[in-house]
Amino acid sequence: MGVAVFGHRGACGYLPENTMESFELAFELGCDAIEFDVVMTKDGVPVIRHDRDLSHTTDIVLHSFLSKSVDELNAEDVAKLRATERYPDGRKESAVHNGRYHIPTLKELLGHPGFDGKHLILEIKYGKQFQEAGLDPIPAVKEVIEQSKLAARGIKLSIECFEFGILREAKQQIGDVADYVFLSAPDMLPEGFTQFEDELLDEVAETFEGLSVQIPMVLQGDLVTRAKDRGLTIFTYTARTETSEGDWRDWFERLANTGVDGIFCDQPDLMIEVVRPGA
Description:
CATH architecture: Alpha-Beta Barrel
Radius of gyration: 18 Å
CATH superfamily: Phosphatidylinositol (PI) phosphodiesterase
Distance between the termini: 12 Å
CATH class: Alpha Beta
Order of helices and strands: EHEEHHHEHHEHEHEHHEHEH
Shape: globular
Largest sheet: 8 strands, parallel, barrel
């Protein structure tokens, strides 16, 4: 079907999300890329977590830190934590690994020799909030990217963010070592917009290389066609068996047939079965 399959936070349907083990598994399963989230510690170190509140995906409740927020902990504190499954009741296969895996830094992830020649998708989280706290993620991410010598190692990097202004700043400061993908959802459009009108799509296409939107936005209307007509690549998120509408195989096939260029998946091997049967 010609659609790329991206491991959402690794292969997070099988192992705790945003861990090196989850990322490695995603590539072992055949993913075209992995996606991961970057947040900032109190001492300005970019680490790989989705939430500021670490109680959802780590064992922080077992520690005596005064805060559960990543930006109120130093990197050495975060290094003491271990990953846990976000949905322990629904993903018991993953939850058995609770407490086994550490929380990676961005430096560790980008420096992993096993990812040479791969496609990595970096999402900047809470950009404005971190900036206001004096923890600007953009120069911190830029420094790690430069140290990692991605081009020489054949690594393709995409940077994405829900905040239009933050993503624009990232592109201005980090430059063409990456391509830039604007993330959006029906309730997270830029101020003044209730849908992806042509005016907004034009601005996205003038500023960035790609667009990634929540599944409902590609199932209705002609957004995929209009985005591609403007030269944008377009992705959708997130395919997972637990939220499939009906049989997961039929649901995944429906998503692949929307014409998007890539799909973020929690169980990427199952999407690969659909889009590349026999692979």
